[in-house]
Every structure is written in structure tokens, then in C-alpha cells.
Amino acid sequence: MCAEYATFGLAPAMRAGGVLAGGGYQVHRDFTDFIVEGRPLLFQLSDLDAVSPLASDVPPAIFTTHVRRLLLEAEPPLPDGRFVIYGCPECESLECGAVTAVIERDSEDFIWRDFAWQTQDEVDLERDGYHGIGPFRFRGDEYRSELGRLLATPEPSLPRRVLLIGARVAVLAKLAAALRTIGIGAEITQDATGVPPEELRTYGAVAFGRAVTETQRALVREAFEGSGTEVVYVDGLAPIIPILVAQIEDALDRSPVEQRRLTRLVAADDEAGIEVTSTCRVRLTGYRLDRLFRTQAHELFDDVLEPGKHRIALDAKAVKGESFIVARTTESVLVTPMVR
What is the mean pLDDT of the chain? Predict the structure, then answer.
């Protein structure tokens, strides 16, 4: 088979979880994505909500099996030499659909070909194939080096626990419950100075409520610095659970900035500015508190955008007063206040 060489790499990625406007939840998943020719392969598969088999929350033995399959050191899970490249982020059932491909050796090279959307053991390439994607020929040394690194020195999964600090205990309790529902651990405290260093190292982010003073924030930062722990600090924009969850999801995104799909969000004068790096579905939701401090949510935009910068007019009634805008794709989420 003739195919030009393509570069192969791996990079951390995530499927953004969140509290949705309709009251539902979307589970957070961290995984390792395939970088082909410098771009996530997932971005070439239209707007697909999926994760690779190399997810951080799968048991080590299963993770190792997935890596060995990609190295052709274990049998393919599907007939005709087909391997799962991306699957359902909620479960591993083929019935939900998966992107599969044939992986084979050609001398020292590895080739990925015949990409398809598969929901059963047999696949019809004419009907369900991803025409125009692949075949990809990877140099064997580069391919084995990248995947072998996961076997030789398995990368520890980044902490997905968040420390919540604020004055409104009821809000913190609801936030912690929402985070745990989507798969992110959360604990509440008023003072981190007495927390053992080994426990502080299990956190990936610290979220401050708006009422937390600068003195309190400084003491928390000092405690984490003293434990040798690097965390992301989040300043809560408002006591609105979907907003706070979205802020924390953004803070926990460890994917390289240059490989993200949603890269910019601003909002001013009833208009949103968005920048995306590849074709994808973008959803905009507006949130605000009414006079009775009830959360009001409005779906403002839901459509597929082409790569580039976009200006989107927003419903002025939906974003009146102190409002916040959440932009979401399947992989990431950004939050911004409405500036007037």
C-alpha cells in the first residue's frame, strides 16, 4: 500500500462534562488523543462526541491492553483486523457507535486505513466509511516510541479533585454534588492551612467564592506552595452552579492550547465573539440570577461553525443585567461575563 508518511503523537485531551441548561448532566472524561500531522485526529471526524480507548479512568490492565492492541501485540477486538479508535464517552458498547479502522504492519511501518463508523461486528465501508480520511502511514520507530512510553512509564492521571472554598455553604454543597455527578471529586473547606501535604497533592484546582478575602486566598496559596503542589485557581464568577462547573471544567483542561478546538470567547453589548480552529458544533447558553436569586438559563445559539472568528448576536432580554455566557463544544467549555 502506498501512502505518504504522517507524523504520529499523543496528547492529553478531555471530553468536557457539565450541568446542562435543561437540567441534565454530561460526564467528564480525560483521555489521551492521537495527534496526526500535528492536529488531533478527532477533529477530522466532523463534530464527534467520543473519546479514545486510552482514557485515564479505565483500569490499568485494560489500558495496557488497549495500548498493546494499537501496537499489534494483542488481537483486535473486532473482525477483519479492525480496532476501536474512538468510542462512546459514556460506555464502551459498540451499539452506541465507534470509529474503527484497520491497523496493519508494512515492514517497519504502521498503517491506519479504512476508517468507518461501526455499530455492529460487520461494517459496510461504502455506506459507513469515512471517505477522505487516511490511510495514514506512520514510521515504526516514532509510532512505537509514543505508544511504548505509555507502557514503560505509565503517566499518572492528573488529579480531578477540586477544593471548594467560600462563604455560602449551601452553594458549595450543590456545586460539590454537581461535580461528583459528572465524575469530578470535590471537597469543601474554609481553611487549607491544616490539610496534610499529601492530601493537597490530590487536587487539581481550587475554586474561590466571591466572598473569600485576599488574606484567605493568600493563605490557601501558601499552603499549596508549601506542599509542592501546582493547582489552577478559579475565581467564581457567580453563585450559579452551571457557571461554576463550567469554570472548573475549563481550569481542568490540560490539553495543549494549540490543539484546542474552542480558543476564544468574549461577550459585550449583547454580542458574543467566538473563535474555533476546526468545524464543530458550538452551543451558547446565557445565565443570570433574577430578583429572587433564581437561576435563569437561556439557550442562545446552537449551530455548526466553520474555522475562524465569529460574531453572534444574542437575545438582549436573555442576557440583561449581570449575565454570563457559556460556550461549549464536545471537547471544551469557556465562560465569560457579559460586558456592558
Answer: 90
